[in-house]
Structures are given as structure tokens and as C-alpha cells.
Amino acid sequence: MCELPEATSWKLRINLHALQTSTRQEISHQPSFASGGTLRPSLLFETSQDQSYEELVNCLPAKPVVDQLVNLFVNGLDIPTLPIHLPVFLKDYQLFWDNPGRVSLPWLSILFSIISLGLQYVLRSGSAIDGIPYTEPACRKFASKAAECLRTFDYAKPAPRTVEAMIMYMLCEHIWLGEYRFRASLILSLTIRLAMRAGYHRDPSHYSQISTFEGEVRRRSWSYLVQLDILFASYLGLPRHISDRRTDTALPSNIADEDLQPDITSLPSIRNPAEPSAISFLNYREQLCKILDQITDCTTSFEDLPYDKVLRLDLALDRQIDACPAWLDPSPRFEVRIMNDPATMNQAIEVDILAQRARIILHRRLLIPAHGNPQYLPSRNKCVAAAARILQHQITVSQISFNVDGMTVPNWRALSLMHEDFLLASIILCLHINQDIRHGKVSRDLEDSPSKEVELQEHLGLLGSCRKILLDAEKPNRDAQRAAQVIEVVLLQASKARNANPDKDEDTNDAITGVCPASSEPGPADFVPVGLEDGYFGDPYWFGNQVPMFSDLDHAFASFPSDEQFPFLAGSDLDDILSLGL
């Protein structure tokens, strides 16, 4: 499988070096978790013999434990939209304990997924659940049981709740696998194929045998899949599975869960989209995802992207942002006004980060050429402003938590795909500041440009906060650690540049900052600074070049020194750090 020429995550997933060395790394470089096992989706790679229905039911914890985890999932995890209808699920949940033999295996799979998701957040909170002494192995166990239910049922057969059970299981793997999200995307790919086989890509109005209630549930599930398809494609740099020309499923109606019951024969009154609701959020996010998909499609194409097309896409993004419901407005005044409603704040921040991500993807290839071509200055400014806005949101998101049953649960969005946006934004600001240093725009005395001084202080502060958040994480992944190291280099560079005597000759300044002198002559549109000819992390598309080249952050940092050696690099040029191993 081949990825597109420009992965839109902060790192590029195709790695020529990895292809060359994959054979010898197959055994020695497998990711693992604490227990020493291989981190992999159970649905695809499990080899143990599946259990019977009775044996699976007997694997459930005691009812009080399950009650606590279900309550945590429903009330504490702030997942605004779910592929399951919670009122019906909770009703079936009560009936299940009265008669454990009456539920289907897909429903039991959903229950195991909910238990696993709840335990994952118990693990993140540092708390404990009575009756489950070892939380981390239990997370894997119950996710594996969710997959086992699906395999025992034969999930390839279209049946009620199978698609929804697959989505819930995919959420387990997505959060658990963390930085290995490509493996979770395999589950998503399979789920989409199963959903299409079951007709989810066609609007339920075409099928008289589908009830009103079931039709709305299917619309919600399909919208969920469409958005995940776009998001995973964007983050992984892979093509989508769903073609808009081959689906006509309408957006779900904005109906409260309590008004949507299995016995209804017609849809109840639709709520005003201006009112906060999970479906209003879901529908608006899908519209933003469609714009992101257009931008991703254009920026990853092998064809040239004319600048007037960039501006048209930027205008389309602006119009979609302007169509945002007032309750999803993430402006500072609104943020203060809803401080007591963290769930709504989370949703507002999520859609704004999605919009800013789209902005960065659209304009980032012009970030460097803008230094030599004033025509691209608007793109550079929008790209940098979007990155700064995302890091401002990171601070807010990291401060939000939820209290359920005396347990403080951290904000799940900090563990989600949103984490990739924080890394992307931090690298954009790092590259921007590095270029300002190259062009002599960072010094102690900026009295001639007070606004530039304020902007620089803001960006340095955001990078410092980002680095602290990345390193303070209970379980920082490798990408976060490497990003924190890059941020450290940039902050040290900026500090030295600002403290350098502006009256010193050029060679002295170069020795202090560790960068090459910037030319006083304006460069061409495709100007690439010395030392970055191969592109940022080996990606020439960052600079508008048209030669496909791929790399991966892991490869870029293959020779990165250990933490003990890192202070030696404090005065090194960022480009030298980024080019290690390339």
C-alpha cells in the first residue's frame, strides 16, 4: 500500500529507510506494552481459541464493578457522539443482568468495549477500581474479549449492531494503541466495508423494512464513519475509503436521544441547531471534515496547486467557520462564559482545532517561500496564527478534567487524534521562529516593531507550555518526547539570538545562533534556506517543491543522542538536529 506524496500529519508515515530496513527490524523492533506483549489489534491478529457465549459472559467482572465502569463511560468521558443509542443500551444493560442469556454477541462486544474504555481512563487517572487489581492488563483483556465476541459471532455477516460494535471496538484500539494508530485504522477500514455491505451508505428512506428508529441510528453511525474516514486519512496520509459519489445517506436529524425511541413511527420535532446538542455537534463537524477532505485532496495531489486555488479553498474554509453555531464559538469571551460546562467547551475547542488544522495543511507549504516572496505572506501569517491558536487550545484542554464517583478523569481529547494537532502546531511554530532567526528578525531590541515583539513572546510562551505538557504526560510517547527536544533547541536558539549583541559582526552572530547568515536580497518563490534543501523532516512539500520525497520522524531522529547527551546540542542549529539520520 502506498501513501500519498504528502502526509498531513506532523510527521510523514512513508519511510524509504524503513522499507529498506523493515526485514531486519521485523523481530527486533516490535512495539510493546508494559507486560511485554506485542501491541496489536486483537480482532485481526489474535491466535488463541475463541470461547463460547457462556464463557465470555463469565469473563465479565462483578456487577458492581461493571456498573461503576459503565457509569464512568456514560457520565465522565465526555464522548459527545456515540455510535450507540445510550437510552436503549442502558435499558438492555439492566435486562442483561436479569437474564444474561438474552443478548446478542455484538451487544456483549459493546459492553466489553465500554468496560475497556472505562478502565483506560481509570489507568490514566492513576486511580483504581475495586475488584480489578491490575488495570493495564485488564484493559487489554476486555478489549480482546470485545474482539472475541465479534469473531465468535462471525462479524462478516450483516446483522443488527455489528457495525456499531465494530466502531466501539475500534475506539478501544485507537486509544490503546496510541502512536501506532495505523493499526487502529485497519479496524476502521474493515468496519467501513462491513457498513457498506449492510447498506449504511444508502439513506434508510430507500428501505421500507428499516424502522424510523433504526434509520436514525444508521445515519448517526454512517456520519461517524465518514468523519473518522476523513480524519484518519488526513492524519495518516492515506486515501479515503468512502467516495462521496457513492453514498447518499443524509445527515442525522437533530433529535435528542430521549425523544428517539424504538417504537416511534415518525420522527419527532427536530431541535434548533443553535441549541447545544450532540447531533448538532456531529453534523457541523462533518461539514468541517468535508472541507478538510477537499484541502487534503488538493495538497496531496501530484498536480501543481495554483495559488488562486489555495485562496479559494481558504475562503471556503472561512465560510464554513462562519456557519458555526454560536454555542460552538471558541472565542475567549465564550470560553469564560462556559467555564462551568467543560463538555461544551471541549466540543467548541475540537471543531476549532479541526478548522485550524485544515488551515495549516492548506498554507504550510508556503511558510518558507513567503520569506522570499511577499505574495505568500498572507499564507504564512494564517499558518502561524492557526498553529498558535491550536497551542492555546492545548493549554485549555490540558486543564479540563471530569469528576465521577470521586475519581478525577483527565480530558480524553488530550489522548485522541487531537494530540497529533498539538505536535503539528508546535513544529510549525518551531520552523517559523527558526526562519525568523535566519533572517535576523529575532534580537533583544525590537523597539521598531512592538507587535513583532509581542508575537514572538507569545509564540515562545506557547512552545514552552507545549513542551511542559508533553513532558508532564503520565506516559509520553516517542513522538512527544522528540517534539519536546526540538522545541528545546528552538527555545535555546531564540534565547541566544535575542541576547546577542546586534552590533557584533555577522560572523560572531552566526557563531552564537548557529545559523547561516540570511541574504539581504529577496529570494525566489521556491527559496529554501541553506541546510534544509531536503525539506523539513525530509518533506520538500513543506517548501513548495514538486519532487516527491518521503521520510519519517523516527528515521530523522534515528541518531538523536540520549537525554544525558542532549545538553551538548543546546547551541546547535535546528536544521542540524532535524537532519540527523536523513
UniProtKB/TrEMBL annotation:
<dbReference type="GO" id="GO:0003677">
    <property type="term" value="F:DNA binding"/>
</dbReference>
<keyword id="KW-0539">Nucleus</keyword>
<dbReference type="Pfam" id="PF04082">
    <property type="entry name" value="Fungal_trans"/>
</dbReference>
<dbReference type="InterPro" id="IPR050613">
    <property type="entry name" value="Sec_Metabolite_Reg"/>
</dbReference>
<protein>
    <recommendedName>
        <fullName>Xylanolytic transcriptional activator regulatory domain-containing protein</fullName>
    </recommendedName>
</protein>
<feature type="domain" description="Xylanolytic transcriptional activator regulatory">
    <location>
        <begin position="184"/>
        <end position="258"/>
    </location>
</feature>
<dbReference type="GO" id="GO:0008270">
    <property type="term" value="F:zinc ion binding"/>
</dbReference>
<dbReference type="GO" id="GO:0005634">
    <property type="term" value="C:nucleus"/>
</dbReference>
<dbReference type="InterPro" id="IPR007219">
    <property type="entry name" value="XnlR_reg_dom"/>
</dbReference>
<dbReference type="GO" id="GO:0006351">
    <property type="term" value="P:DNA-templated transcription"/>
</dbReference>
